[in-house]
Design a protein that fits this description.
This protein is of the alpha/beta class. The chain folds into three domains: 15-82, Winged helix-like DNA-binding domain superfamily/Winged helix DNA-binding domain (Arc Repressor Mutant, subunit A, Orthogonal Bundle); 96-102 and 352-457, Aspartate Aminotransferase, domain 1, CATH 3.90.1150.10; 121-348, Type I PLP-dependent aspartate aminotransferase-like (Major domain) (Aspartate Aminotransferase, domain 2, 3-Layer(aba) Sandwich). Helix content is 41%, strand content 13%. The chain has helices spanning 15-28, 41-48, 52-64, 87-90, 109-122, 139-149, 167-178, 193-202, 218-228, 249-262, 285-288, 317-331, 336-347, 350-372, 397-406, 437-450; strands at residues 68-71, 75-78, 96-97, 161-164, 184-188, 205-209, 211-212, 215-216, 232-235, 266-269, 293-298, 310-313, 386-390, 409-410, 412-413, 426-430. A seven-stranded mixed sheet has the order 4-12-11-10-9-5-6, with helices on both faces.
């Protein structure tokens, strides 16, 4: 088959992938037979009027799929038993956004009907929900908040509980109270980008603390307290975004002891704290040290990303007034319609049903990831909506993000998460949201396939 000439005109893929696909297609059609010798790479490149390296990469891709083999001094031949063509791993069929850390979305008709029933119930008196309401939530809303917080063994007095229009406004209000422009607030070295944006907006200096697999190092926290005189410590301690780590109870108590010694308030962003089942998670800082902790329990990650509501527990009743004042100045009030829906779903058990679905579906998607990626090549948790993947050399985060974006997959480089030191060569890959299991599998297979070779063999730019 020295005169073999693939037709690349119908493919919209990079040409090296189109060449590998053409080899597979012609084998399946009987145009290429076992043992057939393919044209030398330079000869085929000249025949197709393309760059030699493109043909070389196409042959490498075909060898990876088990379609061909090369014999030194003899040439390249169709394999005796070619493996099945990896169409999904080579290129996902449709774009898939793995950049947003969202809980999985249900398509269960019964659950959706139950959610809709909650909407119908709260909108019976829609006019009332379009009025201004008292700040911090109605009595019914606070009762629902107390019920929900009880799932984390939190039983604060209702005077310390506020309903906020999401976690971000709550964090903004808390930092406004605790720190002035130029002050220092501590956080994890790899942390949630939202707190970086809020600190920058307020002119607050954010200092990242060294970490291990259990979270910030107690010694690093103590040293920073002595040197920097911080106004607060921000932590996302359960299923942390992006590393997925959870701080164990022993480390939490070490952190509390240091915070108490240096009188440093703790801002606990408990966005994912309700995902682990009761009794299987870890004690919130607000339960270990209620007098030191500003606890923010957002509903976006444990019910739905569009449900912009959060329950805030302030350290004591003295903190209630300044927090209410700061939040009211920024947001006036939480949306009565949104909060009423959250209250209804908590009251009638829909929120618990949604939470059980999120746990089960997240575990199923993490199992898919574990089946494809090598153990130790990434960090994840059976209940996390993302994985954190250090990249093998010579891959860089820029090269990897550029390549996945060019093929329709969106992932996030480590840079936005880095609060200390140079950003590591790592990416966050999210597996929640509306993306179903099949497309998660396709995307992760593609990522695994991509990392089998160096960037020079996968870049579509020639």
């Amino acid at each position: 088959m020295a005169d073999w000439r693939p037709d690349l005109s119908q493919s919209d893929k990079p040409r090296y992938l189109a060449i590998a696909d053409a080899i597979a297609d012609d084998i399946a059609a009987g145009k290429l037979l076992i043992g057939d010798r393919l044209p030398p790479q330079r000869k085929l490149a000249k025949r197709l009027d393309i760059d030699f390296t493109t043909v070389a990469r196409g042959y490498v891709e075909a060898r990876k799929r088990g379609l061909i083999e090369s014999k030194v001094g003899q040439g390249t031949f169709v394999r005796d038993k070619p493996r099945p063509r990896r169409t999904q791993a080579a290129l996902p069929p449709r774009p898939v956004d793995l950049s947003m850390n969202l809980p999985p979305e249900t398509d269960d008709p019964d659950l959706i009907a139950r959610m809709q029933a909650g909407v119908d119930h709260v909108t019976r008196d829609i006019v009332a929900l379009l009025r201004y309401q008292g700040f911090g939530g109605t009595q019914a809303d606070k009762d629902a908040a107390s019920s929900w917080l009880g799932r984390r063994a939190l039983v604060p007095a209702q005077e310390r509980v506020f309903v906020s229009p999401g976690a971000h406004p709550a964090l903004l209000g808390i930092l406004t109270i605790l720190a002035k422009p130029g002050d220092t607030v501590l956080c994890e070295a790899i942390t949630y980008p939202g707190i970086r944006a809020i600190a920058a907006q307020l002119g607050v200096s954010l200092a990242g603390l060294a970490m291990d697999d259990d979270g910030i190092l107690a010694q690093a926290f103590q040293d920073a307290c002595k040197k920097l005189k911080p106004k607060a410590l921000y932590l996302n301690p359960t299923l942390q975004n992006p590393t997925t780590l959870t701080i164990p109870d022993e480390r939490r108590r070490e952190i509390v002891a240091i915070a108490r010694r240096f009188n440093v308030p703790i801002i606990e962003d408990d966005a994912y704290g309700f995902i682990p089942e009761h009794g299987r998670g870890h004690s919130p800082f607000a339960a270990i040290a209620p007098d030191l902790t500003w606890h923010v329990a957002g509903l976006a990650k444990c019910i739905g990303a569009g449900l912009r509501a959060a329950y805030v527990v302030v350290p004591d009743t003295r903190a209630a007034w300044p927090f209410a004042s700061a939040l009211r100045a920024a947001t006036v009030m939480a949306s009565p319609l949104t909060v009423a829906l959250a209250t209804r779903w908590i009251e009638d058990g829909t929120a618990d049903t949604m939470l059980r679905f999120i746990r089960a579906e997240t575990s199923a998607r993490q199992k898919i990831v574990a089946d494809i990626l090598a153990k130790g090549s990434y960090r994840g948790d059976p209940l996390s909506f993302n994985i954190w993947m250090p990249l093998p050399a010579p891959w860089t985060r820029a090269a990897f993000v550029d390549h996945t974006r060019s093929t329709g997959i969106g992932v996030v480089a480590s840079d936005p998460f880095c609060a200390a030191g140079p950003a590591p060569e790592a990416v966050r890959i999210c597996i929640g949201g509306p993306t179903g299991r099949a497309r998660v599998r396709s995307a992760i297979e593609f990522i695994a396939h991509t990392l089998e070779g160096p960037p020079s063999l996968t870049s579509p730019f020639l």
